[in-house]
Amino acid sequence: MRIALIFENLIGATTGFYFHRACQALGVTGDHWRLRDAASIPRGYDLYLRVDNGDGYGVRLPAHCRPAVFYAIDTHLPHSWRKIRRMAPQFDALFCCHADAVSRLPRAEWLPVACDPQIHGVAAGQAQWDIGFVGTEGGIPRKFYLQALRERYPKSCLGGFDYTEMAGIYGRSRIGFNYSIADDVNMRMFEVMAGGALLVTNALDSDDLQQLGFEDRTHLVLYRSPQELFGVIEEFLADEPARRRLAAAGQRLTLERHTYVHRMRQLLSSASKRLFRPSAKSQYQVLSEAGKVPGTSRDECSV
Amino acid sequence: MASVLSLVERGWRGARECSLVLAGRGMGVLHLIKGSLEPEVLAMIQARPGIRLTGIPRPLFRLVLWLVLVGQTLAGRLRWVLVDNERTLRAVAPWCALCRLTPVLIEPDGNGYRLSIHRRVAPLDEVFGH
Q1: Which residue of B has its CA nearest to A228?
Q2: How do residues B25-84 score in pLDDT, each as one tens digit?
Q3: Which residues in chain A are contacts of B51 at CB distance < 8 A?
């Protein structure tokens, strides 16, 4: 099976990069094509997967690039959403990382972001920091949360670091902080849990986390206000056994069910039912049934 | 009494940490924050003596910025205007030149911040005096 993965840059910490690695892990040929070179993508691929990189929404794939699938990411950003909605009809199927966008796009399926165990899933080391956070400051209120954490917990590691440092930071943090800007399940949730820190994240309006199997105070801890955030941080910094227990449960569930290999497998499985030519479909099914596609057998992805 | 007007549009860390230092030296800082703040978030920011914070709804930010800037200048309360982006720096620079105020640009720098006046990076002591 051959897949053309279409997105701008094959750089770390982007969804396209992780999907490309997942293809390699699955034994599927995944060729990266830059969006700017879309016109020269040849025929012959079994699937053309365009991964949202927040740009290039006006670029149309050549007519021969079929079946074509779009993985939409920036549906929560108003200016991107308008463009995504306009370009959606040119694809045979859509997958969205934000669950709320699924109902607003035709033929769309929810495919949340995930983690890459090779990059995010190191064994937790000796805790060095109270709180860990890797990412941008964000807007209101996240930038205020982050600064308040810096001032209250000086032994913390909060800031923009390279993605290669992420696992080391979360692996040496007691708690991984997250504030989901768009009320969505974001990459940081999986990155924190895969790294072995206890995820403390804001409660979502939806039940998306529960749908993915994550329960409050079983795999992670939710907060609903700044006061509650500081309360749970104090609680779990003081209760080391409980913190370790929840962090381990979160890490286990994340690595067992929420890697990009699992996501790519879901995407290919769904696409094989809906879109593939018979030859490609049977090829994928043979691989799956033989357990040669990682994630299709039960013993895949141990911690 | 505010002697520094801080216009917070993008970041927060730099403006906040700078204002903590200045407040410790007895200088007043008024942060005008672009965007509404929930009361619980405002409470979390924990204003300290000498530091005031006000969240301004985004559509009104420019208007309020000028009302406060002109008002504080005419009241003789201002010496520095702290901004976190070039666009606002360009907007306030003529007024600052006219009224002998010092516009200061604050930008993220690694996991800290840097200050610059007249496009020259300068340490905090030089910008605000000892």
Answers
A1: B40
A2: 999 999 999 999 999 999 998 778 899 999 999 999 999 999 999 999 999 989 999 999
A3: none
pLDDT tens digits, A150-203: 999 999 999 988 888 999 999 999 999 999 988 899 999 999 999 999 999 999
Cis peptide before B108 (omega within 30 of 0): no
Instruction: Return the pLDDT at A295.
Output: 45
A226 touching B, CB under 8 A? yes
CB of B85 within 8 Å of a chain A CB? The answer is: no
Name the β-bridge partners of B5.
Answer: B30, B81
- CB contact, 8 Å: B111 with chain A? yes
Q: How far is CA A121 from CA A164, A182, A254, A259, in A?
A: 11, 25, 9, 10
3-state SS, residue A177:
strand
- Judged by CB atoms closer than 8 Å, whether chains meet at A227 and B35 is answered as no
The answer to whether A148 faces chain B, any CB pair under 8 Å, is yes
User: How close A151 comes to chain B (CA, Å)?
Assistant: 9
Print burial letters for B3-22: b (CB count within 10 Å at least 16), e (below 16).
bbbbbbbbbbbbbbbbbeeb
ipTM of model over 0.95 = no
Q: Which helix (H) or strand (E) holds A191?
A: helix A187-195
In chain A, the domains with their CATH numbers are 2-114+260-301 (3.40.50.2000), 118-257 (3.40.50.2000)
Q: What is the value of pTM for the model shown?
A: 0.89
The first and second tokens of residue A112, run together, are 């949340």
User: Can you say whether the dihedral through the CA atoms of A235, A238, A239, A243 is positive or negative?
Assistant: positive
